[in-house]
Amino acid sequence: MMTTHHDRHYKAGGDPRTLADFMALRAEMNKLSHPARPDINWPYAEQLARGLLEHHGADLQTVAWYTLARARLGGVAGINEGLTLMESLLVRQGKNLWPQALPARTEIFRTLSKRLRQVIRTLNLTPEDVESLEQAERSLQSFDAVLQRLEIAPENQLSDLRALLHSTATRFESLDPAPALPTAPPVAVSDAELPGTLVSEEDAAKVEPVPDLKRRPKAEPLAPPSPAKRPRRWRRLLRQPRRAGSRLSPGWLPCWR
């Protein structure tokens, strides 16, 4: 089974403010309050926080920034990872975590609550996230109980964040599911209503039958045209015997035969 970062037992580290990775991580986090609002490299910030936890040890400020980076990258699930890690460190290390001064710890938790509320308001949450929201709310309740038991922070440091998680989950739970479309009851169809009998016999008699093209008689070929007949007038002239002095010359007659 793979061990996640919030399942590991990190040792308590000292003051990290002189470490290069901590200074680089702080420079990224300071962009949140910069007037120009430059982009923050959240994967790089998460990498720096993990390196500090593994090589230097845990402190409240590094864990708080790690939780914020996981929230930006993983949404509500990332918030749960960071809160679980912070709670486990407080239970085991408690008062040994840096910083030990109460005002400094109060400011860390106050700033973390503010930043996480900003993250939640920017998330594109759906009703499928209700379970994760409720888990985060339970984690905050357990986390706050640890703070009160160990007396290492004032009361209700994360109450605003818990209230936002609760109201968000409640809003999704109160949404009515989309009503199912009514199903039309089946319609019984009798034999008289089948497509083949929709036309009555009286109406069918009024419909002209469609001619069957396959049964049409074949057209007979046309006979060749008969030769043109000579006019009767000239036929009589040709039959008469030639008389002396006739105007018809022998050379003209053949053209009418």
From TrEMBL:
InterPro entries attached to this UniProt entry: ImpA_N
Annotated ranges, domain ImpA N-terminal: 11-109
Annotated Basic residues bias: 229-245
Positions with biased composition (Basic and acidic residues): 203-214
Region spans: Disordered: 198-257
PANTHER family with a match to the protein in the record: IMPA N-TERMINAL DOMAIN-CONTAINING PROTEIN, TYPE VI SECRETION SYSTEM DUF2094 AND IMPA-RELATED DOMAIN PROTEIN
Protein name according to UniProt: Membrane protein
Organism: Klebsiella pneumoniae subsp. ozaenae
